């Protein structure tokens, strides 16, 4: 763990050193650009802190903020990085900027490019005020999400409390009472007496005979059938005697004697003689076959 912390500290120090050297390289170019757009010596010396300093502030904000605020900080960091890169690029293309012999407000020979560069150089300080204030406000009002802390002893403490509250502990379990112990009083220990008198035994009493329970007359159940108040379950229904196939066929012939052929269906036969769907379909086929044979003989 100590080695890991030392490695992280060394990495941070190395990053700070690289950023400091890069700022020194960029500081010269930004100072000359600021002098070319009309800044005095003091303002030109502070100008690099305005541009590159906001980049460092936006970088720190991206490490603190989250979600939409973090995206905003990344956009500010990217915009000012591009602006600093453009100004350093212009400083390298115009040799006159190194000796500060260029005319004020003249960063490029082509007028549209010159106007754009002057607008960029002069707007960066104003943008630093706006974006820097906004980033600082977001960082100050940021509330990180709380990290739930799970105690490793929570499970053990729960089990301990549960074991202590159970009824099978020796403390909460009463001792069994025997007849002899119930008949004799327990001796009382007196601490301040040197000797205790022996307790006088009491004669044991025989238990009183139990009174027999008298049998009472119970009203006979009524033989009148009770009216069902709802649907009777299948298990409570009386079982019907099992019928043979011949008996089922005879009942089906009798029930469908006056039925037309269109009415002779499996469902109709099942309801008429109260049988299973499979038996009803078999009886339907048999009855229709018999009717077809009778019609053929008549013809």
Rg result: 53 Å
- Mean pLDDT, all residues: 75
**DSSP summary, beta strand count:** 0
- The helix/strand series, from N terminus to C terminus, equals HHHHHHHHHH
Number of helices: 10
Secondary structure category: mainly alpha
Outline of this structure?
It contains ten helices and no strands. The chain has 299 residues and is mainly alpha-helical. Helix 1 packs antiparallel against helix 2, helix 2 crosses helix 5 and helix 8 packs across helix 10.
Structural account:
The protein is 59% helix and 0% strand. With 299 residues, the chain is mainly alpha-helical. The longest helix is centred in the N-terminal third of the chain and has 35 residues, at 2-36. The chain is elongated.
Question: How are the SSEs ordered, and which strands pair?
Answer:
Blueprint (H helix, E strand, L loop, with lengths): L1 H35 L4 H24 L2 H27 L2 H4 L11 H30 L13 H11 L14 H5 L61 H11 L10 H8 L3 H22 L1
Question: Which terms would index this structure?
Answer:
299 residues; 10 helices; elongated
